[in-house]
């Protein structure tokens, strides 16, 4: 997840960068909280898991590496806006917008690892194996919509996890608290029923 970064290498002009995860990890070490936590192994989300919320085209576009993408059915990748999926950023890198950078070599693995790690942690909490959890992942995943990457996010790990908890573990109501007030993108990007949303603006 640390390798998901703009090819320009300038973290000062990209607010979502590897330093965010490194800072969180350092702070947990400094405060001694890290020693009180049980660490679990992350994993990549499967394409099927991602497609529980996202379109097949979107999943293949952002969830496969260039080496694997050429093996796929190109008809599935040739959507009507395929030529406009990436933009050249002012820094010289590429992205889907000025905030949401894309690294052709590392981003697909990072986004799948972020989603899979959130799923893995949530399932352990829901199954009672862990009391609670905090996933330190990037890129974040709560802005992405069914067929649109935006706001640093490619896949909506929150919506995917909620949907899979309901489908696989039979979890009833799910409360999602979003403390940065990112509108209702979670509900726009999923057909999950019985998700109770609470938006709290702490800014």
From TrEMBL:
Residues 14-179 form the Histone deacetylase domain. InterPro entries: His_deacetylse_dom (IPR023801), His_deacetylse_dom_sf (IPR037138), Ureohydrolase_dom_sf (IPR023696). Signal peptide: none annotated. PANTHER family: HISTONE DEACETYLASE 5, HISTONE DEACETYLASE HDAC1-RELATED. This is Histone deacetylase 5. It comes from Characodon lateralis. The gene is HDAC5_2.
């Amino acid at each position: 997840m640390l390798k998901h970064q703009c090819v320009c290498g300038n973290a000062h002009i990209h607010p979502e960068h590897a330093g965010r995860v490194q800072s969180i990890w350092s702070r947990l070490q400094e405060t001694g909280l890290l020693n009180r936590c049980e660490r679990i192994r992350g994993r990549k989300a499967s394409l099927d898991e991602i497609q529980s919320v996202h379109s097949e085209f979107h999943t293949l576009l952002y969830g496969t590496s260039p080496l694997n993408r050429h093996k796929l059915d190109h008809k599935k990748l040739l959507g009507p806006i395929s030529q406009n999926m990436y933009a050249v950023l002012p820094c010289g890198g590429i992205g889907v917008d000025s905030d949401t950078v894309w690294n052709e070599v590392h981003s697909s693995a990072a986004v799948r690892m972020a989603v899979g790690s959130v799923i893995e942690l949530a399932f352990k909490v829901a199954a009672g194996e862990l009391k609670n959890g905090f996933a330190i992942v990037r890129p974040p995943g709560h802005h992405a919509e069914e067929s649109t990457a935006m706001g640093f996010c490619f896949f909506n790990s929150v919506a995917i996890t909620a949907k899979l908890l309901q489908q696989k573990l039979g979890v009833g109501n799910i409360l999602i608290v979003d403390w940065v007030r990112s509108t209702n993108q979670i509900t726009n990007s999923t057909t999950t029923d019985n998700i109770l949303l609470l938006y709290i603006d702490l800014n």
